[in-house]
Design brief:
By secondary structure, the chain is α/β, with parallel strands linked by helices. It has helices spanning 7-13, 54-61, 84-92, 109-120, 125-138, 154-165, 184-201, 212-218, 240-244, 249-256, 272-275; strands at 14-25, 28-39, 43-47, 69-74, 77-78, 94-97, 172-176, 204-208, 221-226, 233-238. It has a 6-stranded mixed β-sheet with strand order 6-7-8-3-9-10, with helices on both faces. It binds adenosine-5'-triphosphate (ATP) and magnesium ion (MG).
């Protein structure tokens, strides 16, 4: 038996595990029975229709929400909001780039990137400044260090947020729609940047995105979530190539953006006739 297939080696190799995780709000199931694993160095894409529960899943990983059922482990230990010290230590090892994660408008680009270092690292100020500059250099924006967020474009702001997310050399980076609103060139540049950062840091990452082409070019593995009456479940999981070859109608519709198929465009609602009092 090779070492890599032994249970211990697998456990050491695993940065994140979801085991039969379910979560809902009162009266509303969001995700159901989700199990998956992220290995060290792996880039996992998480896809699925709007409102299916992708951001919720990232919030569960970061311990901002607690699963109603099942267990989540990060870096070999349970993610548990009741264990604040441990959760804090786990979060220090994660980089978060949230969907609407804005920069602090009253801080320069450099100070935005330095912020997590000042909060968590305990390093001296001159070293913090050097690290923040290096991170800005990594996203091609060292020259914008002293600019305020209002002085840079939206795409540049996204890259500064990226530099901030990797400030503490995270082992697991969670990207929620890092490409939203970027033009096709910036999108390609950002995708390759994410891949490069991952390799340079030896980090794992989960990318939530709707940009299939760019994501499939960089992802090692893809998970597609689909809604069910009891909450979203994993509908398909595999390499980008596996998914492209999938014959599942949901996966097909999702990947090719067809209007008609099992994916519903409408949020569940009462029939319009009810709203207007019938015919
Ligand atoms: N605080 C809340 N209370 C009740 N329902 C909520 C709450 N927050 C989110 N939801 C619901 O949870 C579901 C999943 O939301 P989530 O933000 O995870 O979706 P998403 O897959 O990230 O969608 P998008 O692609 O549009 O960002 C949505 O239907 C949303 O309405
Ligand atoms: Mg979302």
């Amino acid at each position: 038996m090779s070492l890599s297939s032994s249970p211990t080696a697998q456990a050491q190799d695993s940065v994140l595990t979801f085991e039969r995780v379910g979560f809902g709000y009162p009266g509303r199931a969001i995700i159901s029975d989700i199990s998956f694993e992220v290995r060290r160095g792996e880039l996992l894409a998480l896809m699925g229709g709007s409102g299916v529960g992708k951001t919720t899943l990232l919030r569960l990983i970061a311990g901002l929400l607690s699963p109603g059922i099942g267990s989540i482990r990060a870096f070999g230990e349970p993610v548990d909001a009741r264990r604040q010290d441990r959760l804090y230590a786990q979060r220090k090892r994660m980089g978060l780039l949230f969907q609407f994660g804005a920069l602090f408008t009253d801080l320069s680009c450099l100070d935005n990137v330095a912020f997590p270092l000042r909060e968590h690292s305990g390093l001296p100020e001159d070293l913090i400044r050097d690290i923040a500059l290096l991170k800005l250099e990594a996203v091609g924006l060292r020259g914008a260090a002293d600019l305020m967020p209002s002085q840079i474009s939206g795409g540049m702001a996204r890259r500064v947020a990226l530099a901030r997310a990797i400030a503490l050399d995270p082992e697991l980076i969670l990207y929620d729609e890092p490409f939203a609103g970027l033009d096709p060139i910036s999108l390609g540049v950002t995708a390759r940047l994410i891949q490069r950062l991952n390799r340079a840091l030896g980090a794992s990452a989960i990318i939530v995105t709707h940009d299939i082409q760019e994501t499939f070019a960089i992802a090692d593995r893809v998970i597609v979530l689909a809604p069910t009456p009891v909450g979203a479940e994993i509908r398909a999981s595999g390499t980008p190539k596996d998914l492209m070859a999938s014959e599942d109608p949901y996966v097909q519709q999702f990947l090719h953006g067809h209007e008609h198929g099992p994916v519903s465009f409408h949020h569940p609602a009462a029939p319009l006739a009810d709203l207007f009092g019938g015919a």
